[in-house]
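Letters spell out the chain; backbone shape is given numerically. Take this protein:
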Amino acid sequence: MNIDVHIINAFSIGETGGNPAGVVFDADDFTKETKQAIATKAGFAETAFVSSSVIADFKLDFFTPLKQIPHCGHATIATFSYLKKNGKILTDHSSKETIDGIRKIEFRNGLAFMEQRAPVMQVPHESMDEIFGSLHIEPGDLKPGLLPTIVNTGNSFLIVPLKDENKLKEINYNRELAYRVSERYNLVGYYVYTSTGNSGFDATARMFGPFYGIDEESATGMAAGPLAAWLYEMEKIKKSQFRIEQGRFMKIPSPSLIQVILEIKDNRIDHLFAGGDAYISGRKIIEIN
C-alpha cells in the first residue's frame, strides 16, 4: 500500500526555514499500528494523521518515529494552514480532536494558532545534577536566580534558561542522560533558551527530545508556549505576545518563528495560543505492507 505524505514546513519565515511535518489526510481507516509504521518510515520528527471527528472539525493523531504523542505544535500548524489555504476551512475558527481532548484553532492575519492550557510548573530539584550533566553545563551558565523547570501546557518540557547565547550554540547534549531525565518526568524534551540580541525575537531556543526519538528539531510550538509562559511568570516580562526563534543553531540551520499569544485573566495566564506560517515543501510516497 502506498501512502501519500504531504511535507509541510511550519513556523516558517516566509517560505524559508520552519520545521517539516509529515501530514497524512483521510486517515480514518488506519490502525494505530499502521500510523506508527508510516511515521517511522517517513522519518519526520512528527507525522500528523487527519481523520473525521464527531466532536471537533478534524481529528488529529500525532506520531514520532518511536511512539504516539498527545500534541504536536508544528504538525498542527502545518495541517490547519494547509486546510485553510485550500478552502477546507472557511471561517477564522476551527478545532481539533486529539487523544488528550479538544483544542481550539484560530486564524489571525493569515496565520494559524493552536490553543494550549494554562501552564503548570515544577522544579525537578532532585535531578539537577543529571540535568547539568546531560547538557554539559554548570550552574553558573544559567540566568541568575533561575533553575531548569518543567512547564506543561499540554505536553511537558524542561525549560532551561541560559545566560549566554554562545553556550546555547555550543551545546552538545548527552543523549543517554537526557533520555533518562525525560523518561522520569515524561518530558517531550528539553527546551533550552537564552535572550537574543535580535530585537525581532524575545528568545532563541533549541529543543532536544531523545525520549521521543527527536535529537533536535527546528520549531516546537508545544514548547514555545511553555517558554512564553515562563518568560511572563518567571522573568516577569509582562506582555501578552512573544516571538520565539528556533532552529538557528542546528547543524543544518532552519530558522523558525513561533508566535505566542497569552490570554491573561486576573494577572494570571488563563490559556494561550501558539502559531505561525507554513508552506508545502514536498511530497513523499511511503510504501507499507
